Amino acid sequence: MPRLLQEERLNEGVAMTAGQKNDNQGETVLLDGAALELDCGVELAPIELAYRTYGALNDDKSNAILICHALTGDQHPAGDNPLTGKPGWWTQVVGPGGIIDTDKYFVICSNVLGGCGGSTGPQSANPKGDGPYGLNFPVITVADMVRAQNLLIDHLGIESLFCVLGGSMGGMQVLQWAAAHGERVFSAVPIATSARHSSQNIAFHEVGRQAILADPDWHGGDYYAAEAHPRKGLAVARMAAHVTYLSEAALQRKFGRNLQDREAVTYGFDADFQIESYLRHQGMTFVERFDANSYLYITRAMDYFDIAAENGGNLAAAFKDTRTRFCVMSFTSDWLFPTAESINLVRALNAAGADVSFVEIESDKGHDAFLLDEPEMHTTLSGFLTAAAQARGLD
Amino acid sequence: MPRLLQEERLNEGVAMTAGQKNDNQGETVLLDGAALELDCGVELAPIELAYRTYGALNDDKSNAILICHALTGDQHPAGDNPLTGKPGWWTQVVGPGGIIDTDKYFVICSNVLGGCGGSTGPQSANPKGDGPYGLNFPVITVADMVRAQNLLIDHLGIESLFCVLGGSMGGMQVLQWAAAHGERVFSAVPIATSARHSSQNIAFHEVGRQAILADPDWHGGDYYAAEAHPRKGLAVARMAAHVTYLSEAALQRKFGRNLQDREAVTYGFDADFQIESYLRHQGMTFVERFDANSYLYITRAMDYFDIAAENGGNLAAAFKDTRTRFCVMSFTSDWLFPTAESINLVRALNAAGADVSFVEIESDKGHDAFLLDEPEMHTTLSGFLTAAAQARGLD
Known about the structure:
The structure is a homodimer of 395-residue chains.
Chain A: E1 27-31, E2 36-37, E3 43-44, E4 47-54, E5 64-68, E6 94-95, E7 100-101, E8 106-110, H1 142-155, E9 161-167, H2 169-180, E10 185-191, H3 199-213, H4 231-245, H5 248-254, H6 274-289, H7 292-304, H8 315-318, E11 325-331, H9 339-351, E12 355-361, H10 375-392
Parallel strand pairs in A: 5-8, 5-9, 6-7, 9-10, 10-11, 11-12
Antiparallel strand pairs in A: 1-4, 2-3, 4-8
Helix pairs in contact in A: 1-2, 3-4, 3-7, 4-6
């Protein structure tokens, strides 16, 4: 696998001097000295990764935490998102004095390869063409995302990450890190995730993709030239996905059959119910911040994810001789990545002789629980990090 | 509520002489002497109902069973469907010598109001216009469907139905029959259903509707004039719904991550996985047999369904003084209409002092289990019908 770039160009404000506060508001590194050989066989170059850091790297560069984001996430887990002005997606967990304490740890988060938050993806300029890649962008995998992150960690001069963590597709990346680059991963926290995308999950992704492909504004993926965006199709995809992120109980509690600003049903197809209004809003706001082709590519990467398959169907073999400490978490009401998936993973880790703890957290919030205020998750994560920090000599 | 028609016109071959075999291959009755006052306030006329019968009505007209179909079902539960040439949708249960034995019972099934199997719906001619209703068709409810069926039962000269049964939306109609016309319902078998459509179920329906509305071939509901059909949107709607009809376990067992006619993934957006190919096929075949506007209207009727709401939120009150015998069934892996919904219903029936039995059937087949080979469902239904027939003096 290629390593880094000779002629790397760093944006202003990124200087990985140990002991120096290195918060940035989002930077992009051009990994232009190297091509990345992707799982599909294509050599991709150039590669840019948009990333953000929080806190300061300590003297022996042993306090770095890599956070991996989920399907529609970005490189802004903490602080404000400079694009939206809204708080990052994991401020419950990450920040000064937080569970992932940016006064103590050096936190890194990068937009995934294939994403639309500044990293190279289908909307990037195709060096072999006149405009964006569109569907000429190669299909990437979670392993490819992690390969790109691995280059970024090289670039930052960090030998070993104290912890790699994330939920959902972020958890897939965590597992891929541990399986493919375990020597660089002191501890790993895969949350609400699985070692392989299930048939049901592929099914829901396929529904979303077909909704996008059905939209005439998709233009075969070349909507950039047409100055169009398959807004309706992408909104439907988001709506379908969003339902899967919530539990039936949470939907009932939050919305039930409550009507939206009306006393009675209207006998029509307006959003009579709050849940309809909520979903439409989710769809409409999503298309403002996400690229339809990125949605196609990232969902495909998740579908292809199956760590065991790369080891002849033996999941334990993927983690053979691992020295990484694992903390696996699942949520009782998460039906998209149910606890059974985590148990399957934990069994394999045990079979591989790994140091692994597992907590199933009681929650009615469904898959999205990992993004929400879940005290038991926070307590578990906090305890795990404290113990791992002691083992790493960080205290 | 209006009763029947003076000038009713019966199709050939329908003659409800007691004791005579009255199998038909699908007939349509024009209920043109009466207008139906719908829940939305509109008086709908004319009303045609397409229906099919099996077996013979006995001398005292006490052996009639009404089967109510689900969202995308039709009036052909048994025998062959004359349109497709394929077996009806419930041949596992209904037929000569079957669990619902058409040698013993007179079985009736009608296409719901709003449907596209021959009953009046959005694709019917609008008497106030030049062409089909389209979106000028009034929004109907499950109660309206049952009102129309009630007229059909009048028309057939049947005072009291021995049994009304059905699954999913069919089960909603069963409950509506028992609540609104209980005096005509000796026994009732609601299967895999609920007394109200849940927030999650409304959410999935809304996703499907938005997929249809997003399709430019929908033409604001007036695609009939444009000689178009929102095929892509309707296919996406069907795909999304279809995933909800199956359990995660069934999907894993049937498809898992198996590839479709290939040795390895293609790193593209073709249907690499069997589940993708299967879903696309489900979508494509569905649009051949179903009208997109009917899909909008019938899903809306289900969303509006909430028997308790009509009784001040008191579900038991809806069944006050009922003399109907109930057999409620649910399936362990049905996450669309989970057992909790049936338990809620059973509690209310118990509170109303009803004669009710309840069986939760162990199955990994999800919501669709009621349509499939489920021996425990068949045994339960058979036993219930036998006991009810004895109580009715049918043996």
